[in-house]
Amino acid sequence: MPELSDKQLQQLEQRLRNRREELREIIHRELANSIQEDYSELAGMVHDTGDESFADLLRGINITTRARELEEIRDVEAALERIKTGTYATCVDCNDAIALERLDAYPTAKRCITCQSRHENRRGGRDATPSL
Ligand SMILES: [Zn+2]
């Protein structure tokens, strides 16, 4: 099991939540700016939906702008989900604990440093969800 104290976990969760709010604002602004009247209702939904439906909504729409923020908010959502299910701070590849320094730098990290470098080498350096 990870060596995180409840307090450390709570702090990381708070940072993830704050980041998610920031990203939502950015994405909402972007939607409001770039999307035509067909989608203005959708933009309103992005602002008002709860956590789960927001994630569903993101999955359902295909926006090419702000892809970086969309990718990041998915990572943040996934990390919050792992906190909820108790798998946060555990490497998805080897099940080892992820070091606190690493989580501090990358609160969305889902791999320990060893597995992450292996993963990036395999993928040519891009950090993305594996296709398998
Ligand atoms: Zn690992």
Written overview of the protein:
The protein is mostly helical and 132 residues long. It has a single domain, classed as DksA, coiled-coil domain (Four Helix Bundle (Hemerythrin (Met), subunit A)), CATH 1.20.120.910. Helix content is 63%, strand content 0%. It has six helices and no strands. The chain has helices at residues 6-34, 40-48, 51-60, 67-85, 100-105, 113-122. Helix 1 (6-34) runs antiparallel to helix 4. The longest helix has 29 residues, at 6-34. The protein starts with 5 loop residues before the first helix and ends in a 10-residue tail after the last helix. The structure holds zinc ion. Zinc ion binds next to helix 6.
Helix-strand sequence: HHHHHH
Number of domains: 1
Give the distinct bound molecules.
zinc ion
Give the oligomer, counting copies of the same chain as homo and different chains as hetero.
single chain
Distance between the termini: 26 Å
Please indicate the percent range of residues in DSSP E strands (runs of 2 or more).
under 5%
The radius of gyration computed from the alpha-carbon positions, rounded to a whole number of angstroms, is 16 Å
Q: Mind telling me the CATH class?
A: Mainly Alpha
Tally of extended strands?
Answer: 0
Mean model confidence by pLDDT: 80
Q: Residue share in helices? A: 55-70%
- CATH-assigned homologous superfamily: DksA, coiled-coil domain
CATH topology descriptor: Four Helix Bundle (Hemerythrin (Met), subunit A)
Poorly predicted residue ranges: none
Shape: globular
Give the biggest beta sheet.
none
